[in-house]
Amino acid sequence: MLHTAQSVLDEGKNQYVHSYHSMHFRYSDLQNISRKGVQSLWQFLTQPVWVMRKNKSAKEYNRGTLFLLDAVRFGGTFSAIFVGLFITLNYQSFFQIVVPYLDPIERAASANGDMSNIDNTLKEKLLKSPMLATAGTTDGDLLSYLPDIGPPENRVIIPKLGLNIPLVTPSYSSLLREDWDGVETDIQDALKHGVVHYPGTARPGQAGNFFVTGHSSYYPWSDGNYKTVFARLHELEVGDEYWAYYGGDKHRYMITSKKEVKPSDVTVLDQPTNQRTGTLMTCTPVGTTLRRLIIKSQEIDIVTGNPLKVGEQETRPVHDVIPSSLSI
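The structure corresponding to this sequence follows.
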């Protein structure tokens, strides 16, 4: 047994030594082949070529230069076609982004995010007015005596972006069945009619995360009037506000953070039990679905602006109504 074991060890040693020498030999061959290949390629690329030109003498190039010129031409043509198609498919979103910069009032509003710039711009506009406006209306003003009430449908209002959008809540049936393809289909159908209150997330005023999503861009031939509704959502900053009218009640949200996440990061849907938060989401960059723009917010009191705790009631202003001015 000892003799057999020694023979096996010796044979293994010889095999390893032979393999090492063979590998070293082949490695040297590979080096020589690579060196010769590089030399041949260099000779080929530096080989002179004369290009004939119309009404001009022939110009000398080398093959490497011609290859680079062709690569630049092809790359430039491909890039131009790609950019043209990309802009064509997403022109509605880019139009939404560019228009505010062409409007002096919008541009003044976005400069510092306050109303003083808007006031100054409006004053300059009013100085050019040819006549004074007519006060009052011909059909009466009884509405001025009515208390402030919410709109008849749920809506999201973002003052900084000038958006007043229907808030659509899709069916919960697919979510209850855990049919995730059905949930996606329901959301896409609802996005044709406004922004979507994500199924299963908190309602305004509740503990949790009131989650709203909308398109930043979509195919121009698709149905719906809200395919670019969140194209300018990236302009919102921490401290800006948006409002949600839900069930006739107004809810204020102040933005607290802004970030981008992967489409697979579903933690943004988490529902905290000790906070009243909100989230706005859309795809970014505009025209792609590479990432998701997430804007987090805190629900605040509609009058005082203080953060609201779970179970805390908002301050609801009550306006005096003059009974003698109301119709019978």
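DSSP finds seven helices and ten strands in the chain.
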